[in-house]
Amino acid sequence: MALLEARNVIKTYRKNDEAITVLDNINFSANEGDFIFIVGPRGQGKTTLINVLSGLDKPDSGLIIFENETLTDKDEEYLAKIRREKMGLIFQDVHLIPSFTAVENVESPLYPSEFSEKEIREKSLQLLEKLGLKYRVEHFPEELSDGERRAVAIARALINEPKIVFADEPTAGLDEEWEKKVIDLLRTYNSEKKATIIFITAKNTLVKKYSRSGDKIFEMKNGKLVSRSS
Ligand SMILES: Nc1ncnc2c1ncn2[C@@H]1O[C@H](COP(=O)(O)OP(=O)(O)O)[C@@H](O)[C@H]1O
Ligand SMILES: [Mg+2]
């Protein structure tokens, strides 16, 4: 059974008199535990696709179905709740809260919560330690390197143990060492929790280097999603 499905999804942007169909009848499904790469050059609609799949944006037509429930007809409040409880989003722009330390940024999605502050702190510290950020937990975003900031954003996306993670070019601009760390981290999360990972990238070389048999690979081109065998 599919965890997430897109059926005949169409999204067109209009600017002045020009219309660009960014998502041109997309049909897609992701199962529990899938590691999915979506690769395509800039401007091909990858971010738009993630926004539509996660309910941040609505398609013009078509359906998004998550855990057998249609999301496309739900209101913002409900969708925000689903995202908070079940989805992890790693944005292309990292968006950390500048006045929060690394650990406070990681904890931010958990409040308000039935867990105590102490429990939340422990959980966040454990995750940051796993990421090799043990000595950075009290640093503010401006005191971190690009790779470290990404890692914090990833920890923040994983803290609520989402069933599905949308990672929008999470390694863009990182050196090879951090690129590998980020991918390893998502791999580990994928195998430990049987979570689904949707990994967006503009780099074909990254897919060649890091994909494994069993992964699903799609190419995004002219508004279409084309399956490619790994
Ligand atoms: N809010 C918007 N209004 C108009 N055009 C947009 C908007 N968002 C994205 N686009 C256009 O849609 C296309 C796909 O954008 P995007 O989804 O960001 O692609 P990618 O993530 O693959 O770089 C681009 O041509 C972009 O200019
Ligand atoms: Mg993008």
Question: What does this 3D model show about the protein?
Answer:
It is a single chain. The protein has 230 residues and is of the alpha/beta class. The chain has one domain: Rossmann fold (3-Layer(aba) Sandwich), CATH 3.40.50.300. 33% of the residues lie in helices and 29% in strands. The protein is built from 7 helices and 10 strands. The protein has helices at 46-53, 76-86, 102-107, 117-130, 146-158, 176-193, 204-210, and strands spanning 2-15, 18-31, 35-39, 61-66, 69-70, 87-90, 164-168, 196-201, 216-221, 224-228. The chain has a 6-stranded mixed beta sheet with strand order 6-7-8-3-9-10, sandwiched between helices. α6 (176-193) links the parallel β7 and β8 (196-201). The mean pLDDT is 93. Adenosine-5'-diphosphate binds at residues 13, 15, 20, 22, 40, 42-48.
Task: Indicate the topology.
Layout: E1 2-15, E2 18-31, E3 35-39, H1 46-53, E4 61-66, E5 69-70, H2 76-86, E6 87-90, H3 102-107, H4 117-130, H5 146-158, E7 164-168, H6 176-193, E8 196-201, H7 204-210, E9 216-221, E10 224-228
Parallel strand pairs: 3-8, 3-9, 6-7, 7-8
Antiparallel strand pairs: 1-2, 1-4, 4-5, 9-10
This protein binds adenosine-5'-diphosphate and magnesium ion.
